[in-house]
Structure formats: C-alpha cells, structure tokens
Amino acid sequence: MSAATASADAAAVIEVAGLDKAYDTPMGPFPVLKGVSLAIHAGEFVAIMGPSGSGKSTFMNILGCLDRPSGGDYILDGKHVSALDKDQTALLRNRTIGFVFQGFNLLPRMSLEDNVALPLVYCGVDKEERRQRARELLAKVGLGQYAKSLPNRISGGQQQRVAIARALVNRPRLILADEPTGNLDSHTSEEIMALFEELNREGITIVLVTHEPDIAQHAKRQVRFLDGRIVHDAPTHHDLPAGEVQPC
Amino acid sequence: MLTAMLGEAWRAMGANRLRTFLTMLGMVIGVGAVVLMLAIGQGAQYAVAQSINSMGSNLFIVLSGFTNAGGVRSGSGNAPTLTVTDAEAITELDGVETAAPVHQGSAQLVYGSSNWNSYVIGTTPAYLDVRSWALVDGSPFTDSDLRASTRVALIGKTAAQNLFGAENPTGKTLRIGQAPFLILGVLAPKGQSLDGRDQDDVLIVPLTTAQRKLFGTPFQGSVRAIMVKAAAPEVMPAVENSMNALLRQRHRIRPGQDDDFNVRNLTAVADSAAETTRIMSLLLGAIASVSLLVGGIGIMNIMLVSVTERTREIGIRMAIGAREKDILTQFLLEAIVISIAGCLIGLLLGIGGAVLTNLLTGTAVIISGSSVIVAFSVAAGVGIFFGYYPARKAARLDPIEALRYQ
Ligand SMILES: Nc1ncnc2c1ncn2[C@@H]1O[C@H](COP(=O)(O)OP(=O)(O)OP(=O)(O)O)[C@@H](O)[C@H]1O
Ligand SMILES: [Mg+2]
Description:
The structure holds two protein chains of two kinds. Chain A contains eight helices and ten strands. By secondary structure, chain A is α/β, with parallel strands linked by helices. Chain A has a domain at 102-171. In chain A, strands 6-7-8-3-9-10 form a six-stranded mixed sheet, with helices on both faces. Chain A has a four-stranded antiparallel sheet with strand order 2-1-4-5, covered by helices on one side. In chain A, β7 (174-178), α7 (186-201) and β8 form a beta-alpha-beta unit. The longest helix of chain A has 16 residues, at 186-201. The two termini of chain B are 29 Å apart. Chain B has helices spanning 2-15, 17-55, 84-92, 126-130, 143-148, 157-164, 207-215, 236-250, 266-309, 311-319, 324-361, 369-395, 399-404; strands at 59-64, 66-68, 71-73, 82-83, 96-111, 114-123, 135-138, 152-155, 173-176, 179-187, 202-206, 222-223, 225-230, 261-265. Chain B has two domains: 2-51 and 272-404, no CATH class; 80-259, no CATH class. The A-B interface holds A 61, 64, 66-67, 86-87, 90-91, 93-95, 99, 101, 105, 107, 109-110, 118-119, 121-124, 127, 130, 166-167, 170 and B 1, 3-5, 11-12, 15, 312-313, 316-326, 399-400, 403. The complex binds adenosine-5'-triphosphate and magnesium ion (MG). Magnesium ion binds at residues 56-57, 178 of chain A.
C-alpha cells in the first residue's frame, strides 16, 4: 500500500470533536484540553508537537483509551469511545491500538519474547502461536537473536524496538507513540523513525508526539498544540531540508 | 490463558523468593498446626471413646460412706456400710440388669522368680457381666467358688505378661504372700480407664476369698462398693431413684438424715469426659485456626505490598489490553498458589508432627481424611479470601495513574 492510495482512503480512524479535559486539583478543575477537534484517516502519519505542558500527552492518553475526556466526542474506528465500558476499551487497547511509550515500559522480569507476546495472552491466543508471532515480530525489528534475553541486557534503542514489536503483535490499525525517541540519541532515533516509516508504508496509521523538528519531519502531517488548543495543522514540507526553517 | 497466568504467578513468586517463602511460612505453620491439633484432638476423643466402651454401658457405682452438701466424706477409717445383701436386693430392682459387690486392694503377685504388684478385685461372677468383660482363655469362677472361698483367679493381660511372659497363665498357680491361687482364665484386654489406669493390670478373685484370705473385712459381708448395670440408658434416672430409696430403707436412714452411701452414674461421668475431650479438641482446633488466620493476614499483607510495588507493571498490562478481571485473576492466582503450596508443605509437617508426637509420647493421634480435606480447603479459602482484596485493589487501578507511578 502506498502513501498515495492511503490518503485517498477517506475512512477516519480517529475523529475527535470539541474535546475537553480538565484535571481535578485541590484548587479546583484545571483545564488542559480546550475544545480540540481533529480527524486522522487510515494510513496517515501524524506528528504532534508543542511546548511542554500544552496537553500533548493528555491528548494521546485519551486517544489511547487510557483516560477519558471531560467533554466532547471521540470516535475511534467508528465507535463512540465514551459509550464503551471498561472491558470494551480494554479490548480496543488490545486489538486496535498499539501504544509506544517514551520509557519503553517493558516488564523487567520477562524475556523479550514474552514481553512481545503479552498482549496475545489477553486475547486468548494459544502458547505456540504466541511464541511464533513474538519471534516473527522480534525478527522484523531486527532482534530475533535476543528472544530469550531480559530487557536490561539490551540498549535503549533495542528496548524501544521490542516495545514497538509488542505494540504490533496484535496487528493493530493504529500506533500511538508518546515521545518514543525522547530517551534515545539522534542516531538511534533515526533508526526508530525509519521503522515507523516502514510500518506506515505497510498501512498502519501512526500518531506520535515529539519535541524534535527533525523527528517530526518523518511524519506526513504535523499538528501543533499550544495551551490545550490546536494552533497548526498542515502536511509536512518535505522540500525543506530537515533542521531548517520550521512551519508556524 | 490460565496456564499463562499460572506461569506468571510462578515467575512473580520466584522473583522474590525470600518474601514468598516467609509468606508461605505463615500458611505452613497455620495448616501444620491445624492438622496436628486435629490429630491430637481426635486421638484424645478416640482414646476416651475406647475407655468408655471398655467401662461397660449403663453403669452405676454405689460407694460406702457418708455424703452431705459439702461432698463426699468417707475417710479410710470408716467402716464399709454396704453389704453383699444390699447388692442382692439391688439386683431385684426394676430396670437393673445385674449388680456385683466389689472389695478391692493391691497385692504382690509372685510366680516363680517373677514379682508383680497388681490390683486385686474381689467380686461375684456377675462382675464380668456388669463390666461386659470377656475371657480370651479359660473359664470364669462360679458361685460355688464364692461359697467355698476357693483360691482361684482371673488375670488381666498386663499382669499376665509381667508374671508369665509368653507362657499361657491358664492352669498355672501364682502366690499372694504364701497363699497359692489357681488361674482359671485370662481377661480380654480393655486398655486405659477414663482416669488413665491400666485396667488390664488386674487379678479378679471371688469376693469371699478376698475378704477372708487377702484383705480382711470389719464384719462379714460388708463391701466398699457395688457396681450396678441398668437394663437401658433410659431407665437410669429411675433406677438411681429406686436404689437411693431402697438403700435408705435397708440402712434405716430417717428422713433428714444423710445417706451413708453414694450413688454415682458412671455413664454420666463418661459422657462428661467425652464432652470434655470434645471441647478440648475443638479448642485446640480453634487455637490452631487462629494461626491459619494469621497466615492469611500475612498473605494479604504481602499481596498489598506486591500490588503497590507492581503498580507500574499493572499500568503497562492495562495499556496493552488487560481487563480488570485479567489483573484480578493474576493476583488472586498468586495468592492461591502461595497458600496452596504453603498448605501442602503444612500438611506434610502437620502429619509428620503428629506421627512424631505419637512416637515420642505415645499419645494417640488420628489423622483423618476429613481433617486433611478441611484444613486444605480452609487454607485455599483463606488464600482466596485474603488475596481477593489486594487483587481487587490492583484490578481497580486507573491505567494512567498506574503508568505514572514511578
Ligand atoms: N493527573 C494530573 N493532574 C493534574 N494536572 C495534570 C495531570 N496530568 C497532567 N497535568 C497537567 O496538565 C498539563 C498538560 O500535561 P501534559 O502531560 O498533557 O503535557 P505535555 O504536552 O505532554 O507536556 P510534555 O511535553 O512535557 O510531555 C500540565 O500542566 C500538567 O501539569
Ligand atoms: Mg508529555
């Protein structure tokens, strides 16, 4: 599937309208998202940027069904998320979404293979198939030979690859990544972004948060948050060499 | 899925072995204590039941001596007030099956070079019926032995073993002082009495022989006690009343005067002994159950710590699709695996302890299948009960909060 055909596909994977989120604090509700509206279609690769505290992570957590908005609509894959119960959102997290964290979040006492296979445990895949699919994905991210190692035996970049393999193991439509390269050096970051680009070429929709313009250049579309609102939303200018004048 | 979760429970337990072991230890001690205490309690109940059976059923003993509100007052200086004819009169009462006068003491038995101090009971042939006491060898003495005060005897198993060893005592002659006694038969073993005496360390002789030739008596026909067997448990209260009335009349005791005899319902004593052991074994079990409870609380404590420590792990699992019930199952399984493993070890230790108690002290112990099953299921129940709260706490965590936990 090419980028051209993907953009022609009009089905929205994510559709948010008038999304609000306020955290309860001792000093009363603290609004973080203020009427965010956004549609992301199948096959898109979106980078979300913005200053610290602008609400990017809050937004991603809502997209990932880890948190619930205070107001507004969120339709994921055609389903109104606010109407779903806890088990149903767990199912979405398991099947539809793959989440990649800044801090990798692998389980330290499990082998890489078991880490990758873990989402399959929660949807009742049998042991043999779990093992086989975990091996396949570890091989895909170039870590096939480390299947039996523990996470603390490999580098940060490798751990993030394992986390991506885990996110992919249940063949999700959507990958959400909150600063996936935030803990990595620039060379390793480029490798991770190349992996995301490859996944996007295979048709997986990707939304990632980043502070670094270089990283955002890998996306096809850039969205900028400021103080809980979207202030910029445009396709990436691929004609500009990375690291030069930024939009907005 | 369950096997995958069991694997994880195993891994989590292995990750902190010392802690898992200590948690388990609470369970091990709890179950071990319950099994051991139940074994000892049931053993005691069994021993009491045995003594009660050996005593004979529906029994009274009538003792010589005065009683008043303060209790029994029968000094050894007091002359026996009961007589053989009292016993005969009691036998005639309605509801009385049979009665036997008893005059006893202890004596040094000699056979060849063996010497043994034993309990000697002088009584009538009815005594064997009263006590439901059978012979394993030989035959009992008869009324003609009684009339003639012959020197014949029936011997209990313990006395026989100590005097005759492996020989068959029947037909042999032993001596008490200088007097020879012919052994007519050997009594069936009865074991311990309720007060812990060995009932088989005994020699039974005709009453008249005991009175005239062994212990003497202040006047002819007086005895220290009469044993009475009622026909059925239901008639015992009536028999007790009519015996009291009969003896008061026979002893010419005026209204308002104290009895010079004392009727005791041995069956009631036995029942209360059985009740006492039953309560004692309940108490043992209850005390042991407390340690099981403490073990359970230990599990809850550790599981709560574990949930807090693994908050982040729980967040990660939720982020990749674990439902509440998956997390609940995971932590519950861990608690159950710990308690069942602790329980199995506890069972082994408890059974081992019971066997050891039996070997070292000779106390009767009984390990019944039901007590093992009860201990096991209670322990598993304790695991579920005390594991549930921490597991539910884990399952109810908010995914975002859990992920944010450092
Ligand atoms: N649980 C919470 N309770 C109260 N306030 C919160 C909570 N989580 C986040 N906030 C506040 O919400 C605002 C937005 O946080 P958020 O993490 O979404 O920002 P961000 O854009 O991801 O920032 P960064 O780039 O530093 O990751 C911040 O001011 C933060 O203090
Ligand atoms: Mg953030």
